[in-house]
Amino acid sequence: MMTRRVWHAGLGAIIAAALLAGPAQARAQERIAPPRPPLPAPPTAPVALNTDPLANPSLVAYPRGVRTGENRVALRLLDYALTVRPRGALADYELEMQFAGHGREQLEGHLNVALPAGAIVTGYALDIGGVLIDGSLVEPARAVAAYEARVRERVDPAIGQVDRATGGFSTRVFPIGAEGRRIRLRFVAPIGDGAVLPIRLDRHTQSWSVSVEPDREGGATAALGGTRLTGTARGRGAIARELRVAPDDAGRPLAAAHPQTGERSWQIGGRLPAREAAGGGTLRILWDRSHSLHNAERAPLIARLEQAVAALRPARIDLVAFDAEGQTTSTVAPEALAAAIAAIRAGGASGFDALAALPAADHCILVSDGRANLGGALPQLPCRSFAIPAGRGADRAALTAGGAQIVDSDGGRFDWLRPAVTAVAGANGAPVEWLALPAPAGEWRAVIADPGAPEVTVQIGRERQQIALSGEASPLAAPHTLLAARRIARLDPFTQRSAFLAESRRYGVPSETLAYVVLESPQDYVANRIEPPASYPKYAEWRARADEAAQAAEEARIDRFAVVLARWQSEVEWWQRRFDPAARPAENRPRSGGPPPPPMPVPVAAPPPPPPPPPPPPAVREQAAPSSDSAAERFDDSGSIIVTGSSVSRRTSSDAASAESVVEEDGSIRIAVDAWRPSRDYIDAYDAAPASFETAYVEWVGKAGGVPAFYLDTADWLHRKGQAARAREVLLSALDLPTADHATIGAVAARLERWGGAADLAVRLRERQAQLDPDRPQPRRLLALALAERARSHPATARADLERAIALLTEVALTNTDPRWDGIEVIALREANALIPRLRALGGEVRLDQRLIANLDSDVRVVIEWDRDATDIDLWVEQPNGETAIYSYPHTLIGGRLSNDMTNGFGPEEYWLRRAPGGSYKIKANVFASDRLDPNGSSRLRARLIRDFGRPTEREEAIDFDLNAGTARTLDVGTIRIEGGVRAEPVPPRRGK
Fold first, then answer.
1. Count of C-beta atoms within a 10 Å radius of residue 315
2. In a domain, 460, yes or no
3. For 69-73, 145-149, 245-249, which range has the lowest pLDDT when averaged over its residues?
4. 809: Cβ–Cβ under 8 A, 6 or more apart, which residues?
5. How far apart are CA 927 and CA 963, in angstroms?
6. Is position 514 within any domain?
């Protein structure tokens, strides 16, 4: 087995200290309930997997956390304890579950819990040492990284997230043994016509209980399987019933106090005034055509819309089909509405920005799942509005953010003409925050923030009603949570990130950009830059450790400059060295193919002792960098200099029409066929009948459309066929998948960058990727490169983009103190230096220490990066002289230099050669080690093959593709062909200004 030699530039590894997480969660100290006594351990004999698709909860486990289909085993549910606290039209729920494995093997448990319609999760906890520890809300990438790192070390973590597809909740817990683990899930829900929670447990369940803490005033009620429940029902074994909670019909004012924050709120209600007259006007139907509605059942949605048309009797119906990219409007007759909707093709990313400029209408009906993967929140619609949720996972808080009334497609009869609450005011007419609730026929219900006054005025249609407020407050989280959820829905989770985080953490509300994580020890939280909740029993210990870590991190940051400078000087010295272009390896070394034996070391001048760190530098002019005036000069066979007049070419592999290869205009860069043409059954189907693509696509979406790779590959196929608009629509569909994450965003951005023509959107996606993955330096580097590329096509903002790109690359180089990413600093500095001439040409300032400024241009440069943690992918370059640059042989005889070996995932890895002898340079990627937790999971690799890096004639080919279980361990990426001799020896760089 090969052993690894990790390069640290002769300076050793840096001991990194963790930085603190974002704003503290503003949650009051909770009383830690004593743990339930553990149930008897189950028999060691394994039980069969529960294959019931309606099981709630559903449980499955993976031995040692290794996630493969054949590795799945069952979990035994030891205890299921549900408590419901209904009050008025709302209810709080608390669910505790204890589950266990069998035998001594450690298991990773995967649990999914279906929730009532409109439910909002408010808390998640895992038992650590017998005490339930509340989860912290952090970015999913940070949560997953912390969780999986702990699993690899065999300690106690858990992660919990909202299931976007179903609206339920999913969690992963490790380790689970025969003694069992316990979790707690808290959520709230509006009751409406009856909040339904299915309970479907298998025969192996040792104990279950369902308790109802009734409304003290006798209003809301609950029934289990049709039998009214006023206390606790208990049992063991299988159960398949529904818990149905019915609301209080009285509508009297009910005060509530949030159990953690202490805030007060009110539920209020009353009789509706007379119905408003129907007839005439414009009805605008807003149909979400994004991919998120691809699987939505259209028949009940259309039936609801036809009911609305019959009730409202509009003179005109405008059908607006929209997605994140825009909208199209058509006027349809009532009898043609169903056919017009059926003809709308679902595709593209979801977003509401296209609705912001719509003209006024009398009525608007929005059909959507409420999720916007591009753009901001749903705007206030200029009409009396309704929203029909599409799909079980619809975000109801988002759908009501603009004031719309919710109308379920599977509900009972709805009065489309009834007046609705439009405003609530307190003393002196001051507006009061409010949210409409489901109500019985002829009634209205709402929850309001405490107005600080004994009375409020409610505007309902054309009528005003006065509501007196009195009574003692009962503990209830639901009213405040629902109000907070709508406030959160009105915030952009990216451009208003700080406010979004603060509000979400205050009420414990997870989302697509926030997940729960529970770790074992205070040091685990420190190491992963996560702040535990205020209820954490060892919060004081964590605070002390975190303060120490912050001080150590600051000291490491100060020392970082000396480390980076020494490594950069080593790069400069290698760049300055002259190499024999005719050098050949010794005869006892392999000339090509696999990795060579350990080589004789190449003599490298020792770097000077590191200087002391300088003070923060002022803006300085670029020092005289290595001359690249000869960048367009080439030797011909006779050795004379020929000046070529070619312009910068940034063609990409998707521009090629050839089915055999992708080649630069001068024939110098060739992408391997297998790299850009993946072996996929759906690609074969498209190729077999290109004219029938749409039919084949619909068929294959049902077969393979659950993963992003399908949309990335299909979009590439369309782009090669010249269907750029359709390619972009299919590509953006990947963002709407329930499984889409920061890696999906990055993969879509990479495609857009490779195609060109969508620089603004590519930058926007890279911004989101960096925000969702804040702990790693790689996303900031990729954002910088996207900004630099946009500067080429956007002269009005080019200077600002280049300044920010260089600042980000400098930040990556000088602030990363994590030894896992050693080597990224010299790559980032090389890229920053290549941008400096462009910035200076625009009159921009360079804020970089002059000792770090040197444009190390090169004939050949290759960079790879990938999107998976704990996956080791190696860059190999076979040189024409028979040498192979590889992790164990990073410095070659002709001057090739390979960057540090990134063994912990993500990359980047880089090969560069300043003066390239003629011949072919074959680039390969080798999967040295897969993530052992998910050995069959795919990694998306991106490779950039660059000629004349850092020169005016720079040109590049880029490719990205999947490396999965079916891919060869070593993949041919492409070839760079150098014609003729070697470039002239340039003048060595001048140091200083």
1. 10
2. no
3. 69-73
4. 781, 784, 828, 829, 831, 832, 835
5. 8
6. yes
- Which among 578, 977, 494 is positioned nearest to 763, based on CA atoms? 494
Tell me how far CA of residue 904 lies from CA of 84, 774, 866, 869, 885, in angstroms: 45, 17, 11, 6, 20
Given the DSSP bridges, would you call strands 221-224 and 227-228 parallel, antiparallel or unpaired?
antiparallel
By the 10 Å C-beta count (0-12 exposed, 13-18 middle, 19+ buried), 109 is classed as: buried
Asked whether 374 and 749 are in contact (CB, 8 A), the reply is no
pLDDT tens for each residue of 586-605: 865 544 444 444 343 333 33
* C-beta of residue 324 within 8 angstroms of C-beta of residue 732: yes
Please tell me whether residue 135 adopts helix, strand or coil conformation.
coil
Q: How far is CA 938 from CA 704, 743, 927, 929, 935, in A?
A: 15, 12, 11, 12, 8
Distance CA 76, CA 78 (A): 6
- Alpha-helical runs (H) found in 773-866: 778-793, 798-815, 824-841
Least confident of 125-139, 530-544, 699-713, 970-984: 970-984
Is 597 within 8 Å of 643 (Cβ atoms)?
no
pLDDT at position 288 is 98
The pLDDT of residue 69 is above 90:
no
Question: How many domains, in total, are found in the chain?
Answer: 1
Which residue range(s) make up the domain with 85? 58-249+503-545
d(CA 112, CA 59): 7
Q: Give the model's confidence band at 292: pLDDT under 50 very low, under 70 low, under 90 confident, else very high.
A: very high
**CA dist., res. 482 & res. 509, Å (int):** 10
Phi then psi dihedrals of residue 239, to 5 deg: -150, 135
Residue 151 near residue 522 (C-beta atoms within 8 A): no
Q: Which of 432, 450, 365, 428 is nearest to 402 (CA)?
A: 365
Task: Check which CATH number belongs to the domain holding 512 and give it.
Answer: 2.60.40
Q: Token pair of 711, please?
A: 């949309």
pLDDT at residue number 673: 57
Strands 515-518 and 136-138: antiparallel
Name which of 674-688, 765-779, 854-868 the model is least confident about: 674-688
Q: Report the 10 Å Cβ neighbour count for 357.
A: 9
Residue matched to tokens 């709508």: 486
Residues 167-194, mean pLDDT to the nearest whole number: 92
Given this model, what pLDDT does residue 655 score? 37
| Statement: residue 986 has pLDDT above 60 | no
The tokens of 418 are what? 């009834």
The vertex-416 CA angle with 410 and 418, nearest 5°, equals 125
Token readout for 269 is 């209600």
The torsion angles phi and psi of 268, rounded to 5 degrees, stand at -135, 165
Tell which residue, 886, 817, 899, has the closest CA to residue 856: 899
Helix, strand, coil abundance in the chain, percent, nearest 5: 25, 30, 45
For residues 372 and 351, give the distance between their C-alpha atoms in angstroms, rounded to a whole number: 4
Residues 6 or more apart whose CB falls under 8 angstroms from that of 938 comprise 709, 962, 963, 964, 965
CA distance 484 to 111: 27
My answer on whether omega of the bond before 157 falls inside 30° of 0, hence cis, is: no
First to last CA, the chain: 50
Backbone phi, then psi, for 928, in 5-degree steps?
A: -75, -40
Tokens representing residue 410 in the block: 């599977």
Q: Is residue 935 part of a domain?
A: no
- Cα distances (angstroms) measured from residue 428 to each of 454, 455, 464: 12, 11, 15
Q: Tell me whether residue 507 is in a domain.
A: yes
User: What residue has token string 């040409």?
Assistant: 841
Q: Cβ(56)–Cβ(113) under 8 Å?
A: yes
Does residue 185 contact residue 113 with C-beta atoms inside 8 Å?
yes
745: which residues sit within 8 A by CB, 6+ positions away?
735, 765, 768, 769, 772
pLDDT tens readout for residues 380-417: 999 999 999 998 889 999 999 888 999 999 877 889 99
